[in-house]
């Protein structure tokens, strides 16, 4: 029995698009055996047809006209790897309305417009798959939706931004400063010319919104996520953390609590023996805790042409198999609950606090009193003489409400012997 | 629209069976929303109906008669968690022949009789799902079959036996001896009274056969796997490995090479900074390398009531969804190739070798000569004076064929100054 090829339209031929083209054209027999039908890229939308490309590609496949893809009844699956919101959201919406299954790597779009897109996908009984939108090649969306489906997920802690993880790894290994490492990362192509989305935590926040939506079966959007980047992390903080047996990482944390879903991205100290502590360089990892399975972790490359394309093509193969068996939209949106998002002031964490103080009798007592007054209890204290009359005090608190911590810090900032609250960083994972 | 519950027959109510019962009866609404229909355990086959159980269970659900399950047309899914081959293989075969989907946690059965069972499942268009048979709660079967489907998997390295990983972790952390740690593991219930299957590597070999079959799309059975256990690992080996910056683990290794599929279970030294090196205690992890995705790792609890039940119930939910959408057998056996298994003598590795020698001039030279003669080149050498005229020499080789290594060792054993080849352990992962 010979089955017709399933035809695909590709939106975008940048880094990931090229990877998708390479995998689909590179091993057609393997894909055909796994899916039950061949995959065939029919049209590719690009901005400029004449741009030189290091791909052996028939120019007749290229188009600048979106209608050549979304109005072609032969094309059953649209693969969106052009990124951005405008005009991508419009293209993807129209593709779904026209009954095409869509595979996307676009975290920006899913983290903000997921709800309306899934509604379109449900209405047209099509697949909307997005494994590549979080953590590149690491399987995490399908494992959460299927493999861990018997669990109530209680917590996700992820290293889900490769750029910042590379930078923090370098700062940890070489004791270098933020600005130097950023320049190096830009030179290597790990950080963009405008690094804001990475270093301020927005990229991680988008991915966390997507993960939390699936884990807790309730739609979480980018705006729900508390975000703090890594720009204030210094070599000194990393060195003190090391002395205390911690590693500094940018974490995305999502928890289900009695007061709602907690979603936050910020740098954090994690214990050196935590599985996430040894996730280095551009690698990503997602640590998932379920009520039945306990702790699990998914590790791999969170970005790059071929890892991301690996996830995109796996989704295309699933969408194709679903079409072949007449079950498109087989496993669709799983946000069937509406859970409140917890106020950041009500979240709890341990805190690392670094203070610049004038080194005179009673300074530590006045600081400890201010913390105690707001019910912040201290787990450990390091005091270092720096120069002249100055000293640095590094404290780690026990678990405390964010709100109490902020109140205590406001008082401490006013103390005459405290020159500066140099940094505060949450402590997680122990 | 009200959809009827999907009825399940459970074979076995031991540790995993109780976990399955608890999950399915514990959160029915959650499962129903995810699957689209409720799950209902109709009958449970046990050996002794009157045995006291710490479960709130209707005695009328219990039976000792297999026909009450496999001949009941209402029962659509049979969950096999009784273990063993006899009579389990017969029960599972008959369930598949009767058109029931089967979910099993039975690695012994799948690693040996997988081929014939998948043939039955194909013929009757039913699901045969077995996520729980490898690494307990860790999602690995479905990620290999679907999420990494766009890859050619080149290599799998797994810590897939919790008992031995617990023992090696204790030996590493506490410097204790094999026999003491085994007694402790037995006291804690991590090792069985007869620990052979774990400590001799057979349990890991069964899981590796299953993983390799999926990764390389070619049926690998238990007999194909080279197996070496951890009984010869001493506190001294672990200490020397540490000096050389390695950790000792029991690994399951599967590689696709030009000369065939390589499948072997044996202890190995891995670099301290390898992601598998920090997988400790009873945790399992599977490190998978694909041509597109690069390195990935899946980490979690490899055994236990609830983690294993988590995987079983996820499979049951998939099987139920497939029935509901009329696509049972949706993703079936993927062994559509027949690849040869590589001869163990042709495999390559680096080796750690510990020799007890008489400490006299020329001893190292004669050893080095014997290695050189068989084209074994040395990467590092440690020599330690022990007592009287005796010394211990610890060598690490560069990569060499197993066959050459064995020939070199045969010559070295004959050298008059070599009292004993105390241990040889492969070095992997760098």
Which helices and strands occur, and which strands form pairs?
2 copies of one chain form a homodimer.
Chain A: E1 6-11, H1 15-26, H2 28-35, E2 39-45, E3 62-63, H3 67-70, E4 75-80, H4 88-97, E5 101-104, H5 107-123, E6 128-129, H6 141-147, E7 153-159, H7 162-174, H8 178-188, H9 196-199, H10 202-216, E8 226-227, H11 235-243, E9 246-257, E10 260-271, E11 283-290, E12 294-301, H12 305-324, E13 348-358, H13 363-373, E14 378-385, E15 390-397, E16 400-401, H14 402-414, E17 418-427
GO molecular function (chains A, B): homoserine dehydrogenase activity; metal ion binding; NADP binding
Organism (chains A, B): Desulfallas thermosapovorans DSM 6562
Pfam families (chains A, B): ACT, Homoserine_dh, NAD_binding_3
Would you mind describing this structure in some detail?
The structure is a homodimer of 430-residue chains. With 430 residues, chain A is of the alpha/beta class. Chain A folds into 3 domains: 6-136 and 305-324, NAD(P)-binding Rossmann-like Domain (Rossmann fold, 3-Layer(aba) Sandwich); 141-301, Dihydrodipicolinate Reductase, domain 2 (2-Layer Sandwich); 347-427, Alpha-Beta Plaits, CATH 3.30.70. Helices cover 36% and strands 27% of the residues of chain A. Chain A contains 14 helices and 17 strands. Chain A has helices at 15-26, 28-35, 67-70, 88-97, 107-123, 141-147, 162-174, 178-188, 196-199, 202-216, 235-243, 305-324, 363-373, 402-414, and strands at 6-11, 39-45, 62-63, 75-80, 101-104, 128-129, 153-159, 226-227, 246-257, 260-271, 283-290, 294-301, 348-358, 378-385, 390-397, 400-401, 418-427. In chain A, helix 4 (88-97) runs parallel beside helix 5 (107-123) and helix 5 runs parallel beside helix 10. The relative contact order of chain A is 0.13. The model of chain A has no long low-confidence stretch (mean pLDDT 96). At the A-B interface, helix 2, helix 6, strand 12 and helix 12 of A face helix 2, helix 6, strand 12 and helix 12 of B. Strand 12 of chain A pairs antiparallel with strand 12 (294-301) of chain B, so a sheet runs across the interface.
């Amino acid at each position: 029995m010979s089955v017709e090829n399933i035809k695909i339209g590709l939106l975008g031929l940048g880094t990931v698009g090229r990877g998708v083209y390479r995998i689909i054209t590179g091993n057609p027999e393997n894909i055909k055996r796994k899916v039950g039908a061949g995959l065939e890229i029919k049209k590719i939308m690009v901005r400029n047809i004449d741009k030189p490309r290091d791909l052996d590609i028939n120019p007749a496949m290229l188009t600048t006209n979106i209608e050549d893809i979304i109005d072609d009844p032969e094309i059953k699956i649209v693969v969106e790897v052009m990124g951005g919101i405008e005009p991508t959201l419009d293209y993807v919406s129209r593709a779904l309305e026209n009954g095409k299954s869509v595979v996307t790597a676009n975290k920006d779009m899913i983290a903000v417009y997921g709800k309306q897109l899934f509604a379109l996908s449900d209405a047209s009984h099509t697949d909307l798959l997005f494994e590549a939108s979080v953590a590149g090649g690491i399987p995490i969306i399908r494992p959460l939706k299927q493999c861990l489906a018997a669990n109530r997920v209680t917590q996700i802690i992820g290293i889900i931004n490769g750029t910042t993880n590379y930078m923090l790894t370098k700062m940890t290994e070489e004791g270098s400063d933020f600005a130097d490492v950023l320049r190096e990362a830009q030179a290597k192509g790990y950080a963009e010319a405008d690094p804001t989305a990475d270093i301020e935590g927005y990229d991680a926040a988008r991915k966390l919104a997507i993960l939390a939506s699936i884990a807790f079966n309730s739609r979480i959007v980018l705006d729900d996520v508390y975000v703090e980047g890594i720009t204030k992390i210094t070599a000194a903080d990393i060195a003190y953390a090391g002395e205390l047996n911690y590693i500094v990482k940018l974490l995305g944390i999502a928890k289900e609590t009695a007061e709602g879903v907690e979603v936050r991205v910020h740098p954090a100290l994690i214990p050196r023996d935590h599985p996430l502590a040894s996730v280095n360089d551009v690698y990503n990892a997602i640590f998932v805790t379920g009520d039945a399975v306990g702790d699990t972790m998914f590790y791999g490359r969170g970005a790059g042409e071929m890892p991301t394309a690996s996830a995109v093509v796996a989704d295309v193969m699933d969408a194709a198999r679903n079409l072949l068996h007449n079950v498109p939209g087989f496993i669709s949106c799983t946000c069937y609950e509406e859970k409140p998002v917890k106020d950041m002031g009500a979240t709890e964490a341990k805190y690392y606090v670094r203070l610049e103080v004038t080194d005179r009798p009673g300074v530590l007592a006045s600081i400890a009193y201010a913390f105690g007054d707001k019910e912040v209890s201290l787990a450990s204290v390091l005091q270092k003489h720096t120069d002249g009359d100055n000293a640095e005090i590094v404290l780690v608190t026990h678990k405390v409400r964010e709100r109490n911590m902020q109140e205590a810090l406001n008082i401490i900032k006013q103390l005459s012997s405290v020159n500066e609250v140099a940094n505060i960083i949450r402590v997680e994972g122990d």
